[in-house]
Amino acid sequence: MPPQLSIIIPVLNEAGQLAEKLQALQNLRDRCQLLLVDGGSDDGSACVAAGLVDQVLYSPPGRGKQMNLGAAKSAADVLLFLHADTRLPSDAVALLEHAVAAGYRWGRFDVRFDSSRATFKLIAFMMNWRSRLTGIATGDQALFVTRQAFAAAGGFPEIALMEDIGLSARLKKQGRPCCLRATVTTSARRWQRHGILKTIVLMWRLRLAYFFGADPGRLAAQYYRKS
Fold first, then answer.
1. Tell me, what DSSP letter sits at residue 90?
2. I want to staple 163 with a disulfide (CB 3.0 to 4.6 A). Which of 97, 126, 146, 156 is the partner?
């Protein structure tokens, strides 16, 4: 029997916390296919993942390329793209099944951070509210999509940054997303490392530049220079 869901996990140098995150998915392996797509890690991420996923794939760097490769190698009719530092809710598979049965072609979860600070609760609230208003999902929200809708959208744009926003814009032409109120939990490490205000300003500046047609390669250089 083919899996109900293919979970596609793009990684680049995530060895330090990868085993813990993949362990949390082991109870899904009887129903879900786990595909890890390594984008050129030099820290042994692929070795850490061996045995904890159904297949390790190797791709040129770039989340868009990595996730498109994972989708091409997947076996299920529903695809879930999951960042390595994001944890799913316990009822994720059932929620996705209900969403697809209700006629949704794509969607995402609400997000929260793995920090109890009030500031991060506010940031998550604003991210989820913005997503509902605009119909745009970000990678941290664990975007899911039917295989048919993904193919019709042409997959992720293979650009250096904003591939999740690019795919959302394509999928919106097929219908509004299912905005699940169940939350995925994502890491606050980047915000904590670089400062909350600086990170907010950087992300909004990059998104605004992308909206007005800036080259994603140049935006990625700015983003990763700050990483």
1. T
2. 156
38 lies in some domain: yes
Q: How far apart are CA 106 and CA 78, in angstroms?
A: 9
- The pLDDT-based confidence of 4 (bands split at 50, 70, 90) is confident
| Nearest-10 Cα torsion for 90, 116, 129, 110 | -10
Enclosing domain of residue 64: 5-189
In a domain, residue 222? The reply is no
CA 56: distance to chain centroid? 17
pTM: 0.90
Amino acid 203: pLDDT:
66
- Residue-level pLDDT at 160: 72
Residue found by looking up tokens 């530092």 in the block: 85
Q: Which two tokens stand for residue 8?
A: 């596609």
